[in-house]
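Pipeline run #58 for the internal structure catalog. This entry was flagged by the ingest filter as a single-chain record with no existing model, so it goes straight to prediction. Upstream metadata was stripped on purpose; only the residue string is passed forward. Reviewer on rotation: M.T. Logging verbosity set to normal.
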Amino acid sequence: MTVVLMLLGMMTAAAQAQAAPQRLTGSATVCSNSPIPAGWVITSSYSSSGCPGTGVAYTIADVANQTYATVCSMSPIPAGWVVTSSYSSAGCAGTGVAYTIANTANQTRATVCSMSPIPAGWVVTSSYSSAGCAGTGVAYTIANTANQTYATVCSMSPIPAGWVVTSSYSSAGCAGTGVAYTIAKLTTQTYATVCSFSPIPAGWVVTGSQSTSSCAGSGVAYNIRKA
């Protein structure tokens, strides 16, 4: 009886191992209407009679354990990756534009094109004209706010969760809007004064408002407190 149970257990384990999905690695060629696996990118696109319906095929690659890659502009950008340059490319049929992308893991600052995704917790600290960003002609300097409590950002920057805008002013270093924000992370505070366009963190309420010259754009500040 014991031997039979052991054999059944081994057979069950083998069946589960066979049924478990295996993560694809390396590279592959797919039709352009195919879903792209998470963590994969499109490295080239071209006409293909083997893809009826679209007539276009993609070469795709897994970027796990990589820090840089060249992709077509229609490629998904993996989480934590940014677009560092863009340029014309005959290898990207359909858009004719390629991106150089980079993984921001273990980095605190980066220079990216303005169409780049901004990783969670990162902010735009400056923006300027750049010939290396075909399509927009604008680049951003971005920074990771981990372990920071204050920062100066451009007004188009995402504001991390739990942060507020404490002032705004004209800035030549923020091409496109010409406005910069001073932002702060709410940690142990129970009261704060913020600009009226600031996000209000969850669990905080507005208790009053007043005119202020420190909030260019609205001229109004809010008093907020933790509820």
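catalog note: The mean pLDDT is 91.
catalog note: The longest helix spans residues 2-19.
status: ready for reviewer M.T.
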